[in-house]
């Protein structure tokens, strides 16, 4: 793991400026609200979350963290975007979401503070926004208990993903603010798998996420050419 502050100030500022819109389902964060049930159901089907200690790394305004807490998990959401965290905390108070807390801390710093403390760690739509994604993967591996699960989702790096996830989503369909993703920061599945192996995580399940702009419907599939999800497990479980 590298410097505990593994973050791009421009990325933090980008999401902080939009923080007040996290829970507006017709805002720039509409895609996150639309895919959240898919993410939650898949995570729950692989590892379960009810009654477990769950960490959501890069939680933003708390969309996934809140949903996992409502499924019965004890959730800690962490992020370095202070304004987004305030929105998450306020939403938890207003919605009376049980068993969810938020902290402004990096995954690397928390890994030094609380190694092996969580049954499940999620890191969704975050790796493509940090300078050193391998460091985040290593921190997630350090944070999960032996035998525990770590889930990642990110975007592949290839011409198809450039056309669909950047040109299409940001410039044609205006689903996301322009500049949300940088092509050079996108991560191929083989690269993420390499980071996971180096961190002691075994890749167990892979899924792709697809979108039909005509029906505005998302679904999970075997196609990992654009958006994809990894379910990994840390060795040493009973």
Sum this structure up briefly.
Belongs to the methyltransferase superfamily. UbiG/COQ3 family. With 238 residues, the chain is an alpha/beta fold.
Strand order of the largest sheet: 3-2-1-4-5-8-6-7
Instruction: Quickly count the domains.
Output: 1
How many H/I helical runs? 8
CATH class: Alpha Beta
What fraction, in percent, of the residue positions are helical? 25-40%
What name is given to the CATH topology? Rossmann fold
Distance between the termini: 26 Å
Which parts are unreliable, with pLDDT below 50 for 5 consecutive residues or more? Answer: none
Could you state the order of secondary-structure elements as H and E? HHEHEHEHEHEHHEEE
Instruction: Give the number of DSSP strands.
Output: 8
Radius of gyration using CA atoms only:
16 Å
Q: What fraction of the residues are assigned to beta strands by DSSP?
A: 25-35%
GO molecular function: 2-polyprenyl-6-hydroxyphenol methylase activity; 3-demethylubiquinol 3-O-methyltransferase activity; polyprenyldihydroxybenzoate methyltransferase activity
Enzyme class: transferase
Function: O-methyltransferase that catalyzes the 2 O-methylation steps in the ubiquinone biosynthetic pathway.
Family: Belongs to the methyltransferase superfamily. UbiG/COQ3 family.
